[in-house]
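Cross-check.
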Amino acid sequence: MKKLIECVPNISEGRDSQKIKAIADVVETVEGVKLLDVDPGKSTNRTVITFVGEPEPVIEAAFRLIKKAAELIDMSKHSGEHPRMGATDVCPLIPVRGIEMDEVVGYAHRLGERVGKELGIPGYFYEYAAREEKRRNLAYCRQGEYEGLDKLSQPQWKPDFGPAAFDDKVKRTGATAISARDFLVAYNINLNTTSTRRANSVAFDIREAGRVKREGNPITGKIVTDENGEPLREPGSLKAVKGIGWYIEEYGIAQLSLNLTNINITPVHKAFDEACERARARGLRVTGSEIVGLLPLRCLTEAADYFLRKQRRSLGIPESEKVKIAIKSLGLDDLAPFDPGKKVIEYMIDDAGGPDLASLTLKQFAEKAASEAPAPGGGSVSAYVGALGAAMGTMVANLSSHKRGWDDRWEQFSEWAERGQGIMEGLLALVDEDTAAFNRIMEAFSMPKDSPEEVQARKEAIAQATRIAAQVPLEIARKASEVFELCKVMVEKGNPNSITDAGVGALCARAAVRGASMNVRVNLMDFEDSAFVHKCFEELEKLENEAEKAESMITEKVMAHIGPEAV
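Predicted model, tokenized:
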């Protein structure tokens, strides 16, 4: 698995489109890096840029971006609604796949040291990259913002990298904060007011830091302090949330500007619902929300599950439907159309290296299978047929979950529908994996064999590819076997009006098991590892026998239900 990290630099320019483009364009001058999103804000005078790739190319792209921003942005002339201290204000690195946070910290330190040494830009490491506990918090590092950077010469504010002086060069570039952090979702919630003060009140109700504690009047009262003279605070209602209120002129409304720093603690839907409650208590109304930059897919699917549970509706529906529900429930299209293809990071990353068979239309898939090309072949088709079987069982579960008079059973059927969705998605993934396994074998056979070393390397590659080409259809057979329990329960307990659909699902599952088994056997013909072959065939025989019995039993129940005249 490739190691992937995401980088989300925020530059202090949101109005000059030519400058923004010039800065963002340098990202794609680095091979292996994909620019995912450029999200400018006029009122904040700030642009969030998102790109992804393997670690080495990403930190090279980040360095080039910081350099270009320093060349084009003069911080001595900058103004905007958002707190900031540099041309590239922040540059966080985020693990996406195949890499641990500790390793990302190392890349953050390398980037910062290079920025300080080669560009002469000072800065601080924050979050997981922080070298001092107090500097973990970005707000602490950014105290005083750009205007307060004369602090650089003070011992307690000595930068982690770059010059410790607010000289003429730094007066132009400002300072940069670099981090390794978890996914941070920048989330704005729209209010039906133009009052920044009222928006701030709601933000203070919600954010973890809350507000400063005062005697009597919460606005003008005397600040309450501890024994050391430090202000006491009344914490807000949500953990791992930072936030302020502001007025956005281009929209003509006030917003809560929230940073959800740990979506495992406070997910998007929880922040939205809490904002609705707190706004209502202050006589305001939430009209919708917006995502700044990108967000992980699970933010939307978890939000959909949350709202579906409140409606007592089945959670076992397709991902695309969940995304639509989340968009509407959170009002993500309140201010502008929300395109998940351009806002969800998983949808933006495409490193599959080939066509996605599972995304083809039925007609396209059938035509591709019918072509002269040897793939997709029987393994991919078996996986697809199995996915259709899981879909049938899932459909019956969903219909049963909202059948009139069965309201008290919705959760039971929802759980089965979720299980069916999981089986279906697993089999759809195997549609492409089987074709990829076939291609590996073709590549191995095409390797050179001009020397003894090449002959041996080719032999080993063929053996490894053959194992994979057997293991993939074997996994298809295993996964398709899971369909039978789903269909059996739906035949016995599901909506009786859809019993034949569950029966069709069982027939599909048996075809998938038998078809996958054929592929395992043909791929292992003449394979030299007899122990591996024996183990595979032994499992196949068991799966085939169980599939035959399960399908026959389910079919008999269906036929008994629809009557002897149907036989």
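The chain has three domains: 4-180, 185-345, 357-566. The mean pLDDT is 92. Passed to J.P. for a second look.
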